[in-house]
Amino acid sequence: MRLTRIAQIAGFLGSGKTTTLIQLGKELSTKHGKKVGIIVNEVGEVGIDGSFIRDFGFEVKEIVQGCICCSLKGDLQSTLKILYENYGPDIVLIEPTGIAFPSKIKEIVDGLIDLPMEQAPVIALVDGARFRNMFKEMEHFLIKQIKEADVIAINKVDLIESRWDIDLLKSAVRELNPSAYIFSMSAKRGDGMNELIDIILQSNMKVSSLSDDGDSVMLSGMGRAALKLSFKAKEDVSEAKLKVVISEIFNEIANASLNSGSGLIGHVKAYVKTSSGSFKASLLDVKHGVDFSGNFKGSAREGEMTIYAVVKDLKDKVLENILEGKVEKILSQYRLDFSLEENEHGSHF
Ligand SMILES: Nc1nc2c(ncn2[C@@H]2O[C@H](COP(=O)(O)OP(=O)(O)OP(=O)(O)O)[C@@H](O)[C@H]2O)c(=O)[nH]1
Ligand SMILES: [Mg+2]
Questions:
Q1: Would the CB of 154 count as within 6 Å of ligand 1?
Q2: What ligand 1 atom has the least distance to the C-alpha of 42?
Q3: Fewer beta carbons within 10 angstroms: which end of the chain, N or C?
Q4: Between 3.30.1340.30, 3.30.70.1130, 3.30.465.10, 2.60.260.20, what CATH number should domain 221-340 receive?
């Protein structure tokens, strides 16, 4: 009997999970003829990555408002079941949140004994470009994610200047998990993608440790806030101008968060959809600025935007106020009319 293979691509916030998933999905379907289903989990009230991945034509199920390794474990099981029964994928790629514990997800998937599925080794991405900085702030989390993985991919090697630094990172990771298979990759450039595909398709390594910690979202100490809005301008807004507007909003959110006592920007991201296409914007640290990916060319007069921020040490409410304040300030400055969407509780997203 053909078994559906489940592959979890874990890793801390902003380590490149969604970018990797899209590359993997493309190659697995075009080069290897596999039918790929994708499950994306986001702790916030809105989904950004799911919409972005869907733009590439994949079958995507999104689970939001909690973590599939703790509060939403039932949702993961039912979503896998639905995906299996309705779509019949050869491979399901799972993107947990950046603050999930990989072994818990492995355990939850293992619990689905009535479905013909097998798990690929647990893959955790490590952000090679900001590992040191993150390690200072999120040591417990990063160590746990590294220890619970069978395979550790040091991502973003295109941003690491010397071979020496890559080797140093590899040995630091090896010390934390001596039995893992460790390699380096760049999801953006495509390096290491074949190796990752071989691991997903062929390898049968097993997770050894089991997680015994509590709620990963609570333990992470991360504050979260989301906002959904539609905007309208009097005349067309060019791609370049829209990117400037978003960069200003993101930088202001990041700086205000740091000034309010946050020790680390987890990820500030947005999904923007207009009649000229859609794109995703990402900010991981102020120094590197905002990165854009996706397909928006030309100009647009109106569109929709979903913004989501995860930063350390701030209460959700404080971050929500920062988000709303900065969005209002910058959009008004650029004379863009906008309206904020409300969530089911009557307050803004
Ligand atoms: N230079 C470079 N940038 C990368 C690479 N992989 C991902 N990125 C960028 O890193 C940022 C975050 O990538 P995502 O794929 O959204 O990361 P993620 O792990 O899914 O983030 P969360 O879902 O928020 O935890 C984006 O701006 C990506 O374009 C890489 O290999 N090289
Ligand atoms: Mg993601």
A1: no
A2: 23
A3: N
A4: 3.30.70.1130
Q: Tell me, in angstroms, the distance from the centre of ligand 1 to residue 158's CA.
A: 12
- Tens of pLDDT, residue by residue over 19-62, are 999 999 999 999 999 999 999 999 887 889 999 999 999 999 99
CA gyration radius for the chain?
Answer: 20
Q: Which ligand 1 atom lies nearest to the CA of residue 13?
A: 25
pLDDT tier, 154 (very low <50, low <70, confident <90, very high otherwise): very high
Ligand 1 atom, smallest distance to 267 CA? 24
Q: Is the C-beta atom of 282 inside 6 A of ligand 1?
A: yes
Looking at all shown ligands, the one closest to residue 288's CA atom is 1
pLDDT tens readout for residues 54-102? 999 999 999 998 888 888 888 999 999 999 999 999 999 999 999 999 9
For residue 276 and ligand 1, the question of a CB distance below 6 A is answered with: no
127 C-beta closer than 6 A to ligand 1: no
CATH 3.40.50.300, domain 4-217, yes or no = yes
Domain-by-domain residue ranges, the chain? 4-217, 221-340
Residue 98 in contact with ligand 1 by CB distance below 6 A: yes
Q: State the closest ligand 1 atom to the C-alpha of 191, by its place in the atom list counted from 1.
A: 31
